[in-house]
Amino acid sequence: MIRYFMAAVLLLSNISTTVRAEQRELAWLSGRATVIDGDTLKIGQIPIRIHGIDAPEKNQVCIKENISWKCGVEATKLMRSLVMGSEVSCEKLDQDRYGRVVGRCFSNGNNLGEMMVVQGLALAYRQYSSEYVPMEGISKSVQRGMWAGKFTPPWEWRRGKRLGHKKEITDKDCLIKGNINRSGERIYHLPGSRFYAQTKINVAKSERYFCTEEAAEKAGWRKAKR
């Protein structure tokens, strides 16, 4: 009798363990992700909205030093770099009104929402979560990403609010490229110099264009040696 009782207990325990494992599996989505924008992914055909953050919309612009830059595009680029070549795992937390899974997502051991906020290319979405508020404070204190200038919160942008019009740099305007290398050294490149064509300016990383060498040097950049 005792033997039958122990066997029944063991069977129930195994069933319970299996159910818990299946529940955990159902609570997660994993796979290669397609990036839609700075806070939205797709795994397979399932759209996923990153929990607790709000990134600038794809067509949204921000302003730094009276020059507009495409912060929405930069946010999308950052998200792509975070998931590139790696599997993404998302803990399913909710579903939004558009039918998207709302999840906390990870790639390469990084919390994607946290990384976006730390880099200043997403805001803590306080309406739904305070999880990333401390990270936002850090980003704001060092003026990283959007915090380096002026911006409209994405939720206000979607309602039609815009910053005043500012001039956006084009190839016909200031042409001196102020680049920051991997060592953090600020170097400017003149048109026609050896590395001018291959130098790309990322305003989100505090790189910029200058109209004159004097302006570049006054701002702390030095001339490229070649």
Can you walk through the features of this model?
With about 230 residues, the chain is an alpha+beta fold. It is about 30% helix and about 30% strand. It has two domains: about 30-155, OB fold (Dihydrolipoamide Acetyltransferase, E2P) (Beta Barrel), CATH 2.40.50; about 170-225, no CATH class. It has helices spanning about 1-25, 70-85, 110-120, 135-140, 155, 215-220; strands at about 30-35, 40-45, 45-50, 55, 60-65, 65-70, 85-95, 100-105, 110, 125, 165-170, 175-180, 185-190, 210, 220-225. Strand 7 (about 85-95) and strand 8 form a beta hairpin. The N and C termini lie far apart (about 90 Å).
Helix content bin: 25-40%
Largest sheet: 5 strands, mixed, barrel
Low-confidence stretches: 15-24, 166-172
In the CATH hierarchy, what is the architecture of the largest domain at level 2? Beta Barrel
Pattern of helices and strands:
HEEEEEEHEEEHEHHEEEEHE
Bin the strand percentage.
Answer: 25-35%
- Overall strand count: 15
Any idea what the shape is? elongated
Discrete helix count:
6
Q: What is the overall pLDDT average?
A: 86
Integer count of domains: 2
Quote the CATH topology of the largest domain: OB fold (Dihydrolipoamide Acetyltransferase, E2P)
Top CATH class of the largest domain: Mainly Beta
* Class computed from helices, strands and strand pairing: alpha+beta
Gyration radius (Cα, Å) is 24 Å
Strand order of the largest sheet: 1-2-3-8-7
Distance between the termini: 89 Å
